[in-house]
Amino acid sequence: MAKSKMEYWFEEMHTSNVKMSIRVDQHLYSGTSEFRRIDVFDSPEFGRFLTSNGNVIFSEQEEFTYDEMIVHVPMAVHPDVKRVLVIGGGDGGVARELSHYKEIEVIDIAEPDKMFVDVCRKYFPDNAIGLEDVRVRIYYEDGLRFLRKCQDKYDLIINDATDPLGHEAGLFTKEFYGNCYKALHDDGIMVYQHGSPFFDEDEENCRAMHRKAFKSFPISRVYQAHIPTCPAGYWLFGFASKKYHPIKDFNPERWESRNIKTWYYTTHLHKGAFMLPKYVEDILKEEE
Amino acid sequence: MAKSKMEYWFEEMHTSNVKMSIRVDQHLYSGTSEFRRIDVFDSPEFGRFLTSNGNVIFSEQEEFTYDEMIVHVPMAVHPDVKRVLVIGGGDGGVARELSHYKEIEVIDIAEPDKMFVDVCRKYFPDNAIGLEDVRVRIYYEDGLRFLRKCQDKYDLIINDATDPLGHEAGLFTKEFYGNCYKALHDDGIMVYQHGSPFFDEDEENCRAMHRKAFKSFPISRVYQAHIPTCPAGYWLFGFASKKYHPIKDFNPERWESRNIKTWYYTTHLHKGAFMLPKYVEDILKEEE
């Protein structure tokens, strides 16, 4: 086929000195919302993938890792989640994983970017099916503004926002963590993207995030996953909690009894995900 | 500086459809040995790095992960390692980590490629210092041929060979695993590079490797690390053992008492490294 002879590549700078390139079959969509440029590509290696301002947000071949790890880890710890707030998450992948849990009554999604939701509905039906769950309500609002109205309202807040420097900068401020704390019930948990710790350019963001969460919540731990399209293939998540400890209050039997099908998460891996490399432990400890 | 304006990149195909690029400051060395082309580069992000036939073998900024994980994991399990064989390992990084252990009496290195050793001595003194340990003996021989002469001789064999398809193909055969078994004492351990499981192109190698080790040793487990220059940033190691189990016989207190300085390995991480993603567990189980 002629297709395989053409050199057609998407490239992402992971730092100014390291680049990841993905061979592309087709550029399916390009649009600019109020917040960002959104593109959709088909690729032989990662399947279909979406970019925001030129950064890969997720791909068909690996989104399971991110969505499973940000949902099942807190859900296997908190014994009774009824009300969940997802900040960002307009693609539906997080909602899809949440929809496996029968005890959840409300899944609120605060996603300011309606174009992002529409693009995902059209091009990523396997993610967007999560938005069809009857418990889901989408609020096309800025996450920080949405949170300011909330008090003692949620059992779990998932911050699915990815870009600490762009339009989502407000979701990485001290005020944001304080508002999350206020919006949670007394035994609430908040999980968030903690970035990639390996490259020097990313390390300061990673430090600042831990500093803020550690000051705002009595329990603040970090866990990890391998996500190939992330810088260095390595991603951290934050687990900030008012009462439950991610390991001491983890109930593997209860989670296993649900029979949720996964590709990445296991109850073994749950524990292993909190066992971090020495250099990451050192970075975090220095901010505590 | 003009340097920062020049686009000068080393590129490695991780699959035919995914590429990693590293900005280069200088190309310090290029030579072709009997076995392969060897190059050395300086880069702003990974420091100095070495390539073999165009594949990154290690870089200053991340070699610690690989060398620590392949040495400290078995050393924290086996209670009394006196004789070690390293297959490949001519750069000295594995020997450097082994040199922290006083009880070791012999570190034999079977490295056919003398040019590789010479290049590492010149350009990577922080690795090659491992070769200066008085217990180290370098045999410039093919690993498989060296092994055929060995019987009941070692407590630990570390297969540091990286290229299952090139000149080191013999080190990934069924005969190789059988010869390692024979060369080990009754309570010996063998560790080896298990490759990256994420991309389809790598998965079959990963399966074949587990199949062979699982048939050759009573205990055969796989553990993981994040190594940014590896395909998908994700690397597996094999732990094949005649007697000791990597978790049940793991002695964290004994290892801690040695006070070895690390950047990646911790005794927590030791356990976590064996807790694998579901899709990796499934691949391995299918070959058992």
Automatic annotation (TrEMBL), chains A, B:
Pfam families: Spermine_synt_N, Spermine_synth. Keywords: Polyamine biosynthesis, Spermidine biosynthesis, Transferase. One of its GO terms (molecular function) is spermidine synthase activity. GO terms for biological process: spermidine biosynthetic process. It comes from the Bacteria. Its EC number is 2.5.1.16. Residues 7-242 form the PABS domain. Spermidine binds at D91. Gene3D superfamilies: Spermidine synthase, tetramerisation domain, Vaccinia Virus protein VP39. Belongs to the spermidine/spermine synthase family. Catalyzes the irreversible transfer of a propylamine group from the amino donor S-adenosylmethioninamine (decarboxy-AdoMet) to putrescine (1,4-diaminobutane) to yield spermidine. This is Polyamine aminopropyltransferase. It comes from Eubacterium ruminantium. The lineage of its organism: Bacteria, Bacillati, Bacillota, Clostridia, Eubacteriales.
